[in-house]
């Protein structure tokens, strides 16, 4: 993708929005809109069609979780949503990731990390290490049975299932390559095919899917 990322900032705290806007614009990132609640965020996304949305969870009128669901509900040109939180293991973060968010940032993120994260997510990468996603899933998955997404893994080859199992354990591409005695390029191809076949946005969603389908259990065991 070329050009500067276009970003919407949704947070009910003026100081947070102002600080993030100053950091991003100083680095050439275009903040196309700000929102003080989830309803405004949904409208801002509809109006401006950004690449990335920085979304607070706890906002008045409409929270960030429901706003994320509405933004990502079948839109052909949907943006990447990054959840803003003050806690690194927040129940709402897991729910937002399940709803389709591409990762999360703590509100005390450094300016350098904020800028790098926006560019990384806009390029299509997940903004959350699979190992951290696994911690979230292990902590909250059993409490969210009602929201479980049942996916059919029958489309995956035995090798792709093996890659998905290891991905859910938090292995990076380099670690996957070493474990499976493959090149990193081949691993990337397998991951891309898994995402395409299961209609997933990124690695974060792949980790969640592995747990939600029972391919891997919260205890770390692989069902027989």
How does this model look, in words?
There is one protein chain. The chain has two domains: 6-128, Response regulator (Rossmann fold, 3-Layer(aba) Sandwich), CATH 3.40.50.2300; 140-212, Orthogonal Bundle (Arc Repressor Mutant, subunit A), CATH 1.10.10.10. Helices cover 48% and strands 12% of the residues. The chain has helices spanning 14-26, 38-48, 64-71, 91-99, 111-122, 130-140, 158-168, 173-180, 184-197, 203-212, and strands at 6-10, 30-35, 52-56, 80-85, 103-106. The chain has a five-stranded parallel β-sheet with strand order 2-1-3-4-5, with helices on both faces. It is globular and about 50 Å long. Keywords: DNA-binding, Phosphoprotein, Transcription, Transcription regulation.
């Amino acid at each position: 993708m070329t050009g500067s990322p276009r970003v919407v900032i949704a947070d009910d705290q003026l100081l947070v929005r102002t600080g993030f806007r100053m950091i991003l614009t100083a680095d050439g990132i275009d903040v196309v809109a700000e929102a003080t609640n989830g309803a405004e965020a949904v409208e801002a996304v509809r109006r401006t069609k950004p690449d990335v949305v920085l979304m607070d969870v706890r906002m008045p009128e409409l929270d960030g979780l429901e706003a994320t669901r509405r933004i990502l509900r079948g839109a052909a040109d949907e943006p990447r949503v990054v959840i803003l939180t003050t806690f690194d293991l927040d129940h709402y973060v897991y729910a937002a990731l399940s709803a389709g968010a591409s990762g999360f940032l703590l509100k005390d993120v450094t300016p350098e990390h904020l800028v790098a994260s926006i560019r990384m997510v806009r390029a299509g990468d997940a903004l959350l290490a699979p190992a951290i996603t696994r911690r979230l899933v292990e902590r909250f998955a059993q409490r969210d049975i009602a929201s479980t997404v049942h996916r059919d893994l029958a489309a995956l080859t035995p090798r792709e299932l093996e890659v998905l199992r290891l991905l859910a354990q938090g292995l990076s591409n380099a670690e996957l390559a070493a474990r499976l005695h493959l090149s990193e390029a081949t691993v990337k191809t397998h991951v891309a095919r898994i995402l395409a076949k299961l209609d997933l946005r990124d690695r974060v969603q792949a980790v969640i899917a592995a747990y939600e389908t029972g391919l891997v259990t919260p205890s770390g065991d692989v069902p027989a």
